[in-house]
Amino acid sequence: MNAELYDVSKGPENQAPETSSGSVQGRFKKKDKERVIYPRRSRAMSQRNPVSGGTPITEEIAIELRHIVFGCSVSAPKHEWLRTGLVYRESDQELGYGLKSPRNGTRGLLSVVQAQIIKHLLFEKRGKDQHPRPDMMLKPSRARQIEALWIAIADILWRIGEKSKCSVVLPQDIVHIPQSHKYLQDGVTEKLNIFEFTDLEDLQIFIKRYTHVFEDDPGPGALLILYSAVLTRGISKIRTDLDDEKAYLVTGVEEGSHCIVTLLLTGRATPYLHNGVVYVGDEDHYAMPQFGILTRSEVGLLVWDEYTEGKCEESRQPGSRLKTPSLPVWVSSCTGHYGVLFNTNRELLRNYHAERRFDLHYYTCGGTHSLLSVDTRYNEDEMHAGSGKEDFSTAPPLEKLVHTKWQDARVAWTGAAPVA
Questions:
Q1: Are 402 and 411 contacting, i.e. CB atoms less than 8 angstroms apart?
Q2: CB-CB neighbours of 300 under 10 Å
Q3: pLDDT over 70 at 32, yes or no
């Protein structure tokens, strides 16, 4: 849509007198050449659009949401979920692609959004105005930051809705649900309005219009994404995904449960990270199915935890569908701390030669950034020399995380060891 033009020369002091004088006409022809025309709507572009429309949340939905997300509707939800927005670092600077937040239970969700932002900046089709160099693409302008954020949110929700439908919740000023013995108000849930979409373009336009609501700091941006994801998937389906009638999403895990991460990455809130379906049982019980990761995703997941290292918990370790995504971007969970690992070469996982020696960026929303050099040829050369397999038992946790994907690779970095 073409912006309506506003002519600044037509203020009261610039109006031409009603005369046919040639000198007056000549004077205004000269002014026409000098006048500046601005888009009338340019000043409004920076304004916040108030949220309007949608369907007010009902008490039944609010109670079910609080139960499946926080485990209870009559006690206050975790405070950080009400005050954590999606906030970028400075644009056009180093780490300008990065979200920032304190270490809390929202970190897992934010890391998935961060991975989607990086995927968009590096690998989505770019116009002629975008710089082709990866180092410059990772220093986005403010406009590019906003674009990457609303596209990331829309893509996550559209994937959860199986690319056919989705729900988005946004708060307004009206309180729809009174406080009662069944529901304790939290300042957000009872003010929500629900918006339904069956077209990706409509969803993207909507998220773009209200990106500022997700960016509010402090604000409930992280919670709005989680609530929208739950309603898009369906509360009953989330319960089935969790494989436990008493389970809920926001647990006591310091930076968030894997179920939140798998919901946003794959569309299903499964606690099982293996490929496909595994039937588990013994001679006294029927074998029951554990539904893991059913399809390969664009963004992967790598997990390493010292408490489960060497233990036979294959269902809790990512299978190849998470370890080898279609693009070289991984959400990482290392000793319970979330981050993002990524490489700027789209062909990394498609080209054997590219995967022999390469760099990995590691970023956390706490501001940690490290550049790791991974050499998968190292132990191959050592074995040919007859020196045997190297002992990595004393390696830093992040190096052990990398080994879950590239076993026995040599990992190096400059400066102090990167901290997860």
A1: yes
A2: 27
A3: no
Q: Do residues 375 and 412 lie in contact, with contact meaning Cβ atoms separated by under 8 Å?
A: yes
Phi-psi region of 243 (alpha: psi -120 to 50; beta: other; left: phi over 0): left
What the block records as the tokens of 135 is: 């180092």
As separate numbers, helices (DSSP H) first and strands (DSSP E) second, the chain gives 13, 15
User: Is the alpha carbon torsion for 251, 335, 371, 416 positive or negative?
Assistant: positive
Burial of residue 396, with CB atoms counted within 10 A of its CB: 0-12 exposed, 13-18 middle, 19 or more buried: middle
Q: Output the six-digit token pair for 204.
A: 């993207």
Q: Is 17 exposed, middle or buried (0-12, 13-18, 19+ CB in 10 A)?
A: exposed
What residue has token string 């139960």? 67
Three-class secondary structure assignment of 123-188: HCCCCCCCCCCHHHHCCCCHHHHHHHHHHHHHHHHHHHCCCCCEEEEEECCCCCCCCCCCCCCCCC
- What is the per-residue pLDDT across 86-126, written as a single tens digit (0 to 9) for each? 999 999 999 999 999 988 999 999 999 999 999 999 998 76
Check whether the bond before 418 is cis (ω within 30° of 0): no
Q: φ, ψ for residue 35 (rounded to 5)?
A: -70, 155
